[in-house]
Design goal:
P-loop_NTPase; binds adenosine-5'-triphosphate; 5-stranded parallel sheet; AAA+_ATPase; 45% helix; TniB; binds magnesium ion; TniB family protein; Rossmann fold; alpha/beta; 2 domains
Length: 311
């Protein structure tokens, strides 16, 4: 029997994990976890505000921007989870007040609706244009599941379309917002802003919010400390010095993905070596930094060239 009181540096829920064997603890480190920070809390608060707005002819929408790897997708998933939890027990009809969909790479209406219907679990939504339900059916399906907010992740994919495809897509967004009276949340890298700029009506209805790159300061130190506390290492880590902050920010470019990746790798190495804690020396090993580059979104699979082709 392991005495969990030995690990008073850990929160109670992490103590239970710290009692597990090495491989289970490593699996826990590799799994995703949510760490709160002020910018994320502010975005969540704005999303909540959009969610509770009454349906009207002029819905407020939001464009959430941030560099690749800053944590946009994690944030909108957290918001969708929160809303679903608040709904309590699922009834006969599965409600989808918040629909999170992925913008298709090919920004055409059939592909967009396929993704949208897939996000609410409509099985007939195949990528075949011929069986695409009519607009009226789509509207009925969406209102039956009680959609209030549609989140379109990776909206920047619209920039890969021709100028004509982009225009048609913006018309489609306007139509959705007006007909369905739902709030739209676009999510993407900062260039996504250009996609909406060309449409006056949409531009004035989208509030812009940014998840900025991390900078030196209390919020970053707190984020790193909380992240390290959430990892089941059996000895207390000594990591709140300025040198570590500078190292992390300098080598990751202040991108959340890179920061989390190197800390997780260092923690796994600390378990394997038996050191069981992190200090500056844990970040001096080259392998901890593999693939992390301050100029690029680190280790991201979502990087793609954004190019506007003439219509
Ligand atoms: N609040 C958070 N708590 C813990 N880890 C986080 C948090 N936000 C982001 N991360 C880490 O950063 C990684 C990247 O997050 P995410 O995929 O949401 O970024 P993104 O902004 O959507 O990137 P992209 O634009 O490339 O899609 C996550 O896999 C996770 O490791
Ligand atoms: Mg994402």
């Amino acid at each position: 029997m392991v005495d969990t009181k030995l690990w008073s540096h850990l929160p109670a829920d992490v103590c239970a994990v710290a009692a597990l064997g090495d491989e289970d603890r490593i699996a826990h480190i590799r799994a995703k976890r949510w760490i709160d920070y002020p910018h994320a809390a502010r975005v969540l608060w704005r999303l909540e505000e959009l969610y509770v707005q009454p349906r009207s002819d002029r819905m407020e929408n939001l464009l959430l921007l941030g560099r690749s790897g800053m944590g946009k997708t994690m944030l909108i998933r957290k918001f969708a989870r929160q809303v679903t939890l608040d709904l309590g027990e699922p009834g006969i009809v599965r409600l989808h007040p918040v629909v999170v969909m992925l913008m298709p790479h090919d920004p055409t209406a059939p592909r967009f609706f396929t993704q949208l219907l897939r996000a609410i679990g409509v099985p007939s939504a195949d990528s075949c244009e011929a069986i695409m339900p009519r607009e009226a059916t789509i509207l009925r399906l969406l209102s039956e599941v009680g959609v209030k907010v549609i989140v379109i992740d990776e909206l920047n994919s619209v920039l890969a379309g021709t100028a004509r495809q982009q225009r048609c897509f913006l018309q489609l967004l306007r139509w959705l917002s007006n007909e369905l009276r739902v709030a739209l949340v676009g999510v993407g890298v900062p260039e996504t802003r250009h996609a909406l700029m060309s449409d006056d009506q949409l531009r004035s209805r989208f509030m812009h919010l940014e998840l900025p790159d991390w900078q030196e300061g209390e919020p970053f130190t707190r984020f790193v400390t909380q992240l390290i506390w959430s990892l089941p290492l059996r000895a207390p880590s000594r990591v709140n010095g300025r040198r570590l902050t500078k190292l992390l920010l300098g080598r990751t470019g202040g991108i959340t993905l890179g920061v989390c990746k190197v800390i997780e790798r260092a923690a796994i190495a600390a378990i394997r070596s038996g050191q069981e804690h992190l200090d500056l020396s844990a970040f001096e090993r080259d392998e901890v930094w593999d693939g992390v580059d301050p100029g690029l979104p680190p280790l991201s699979v979502a990087r793609r060239t954004v190019r506007v082709r003439p219509g």
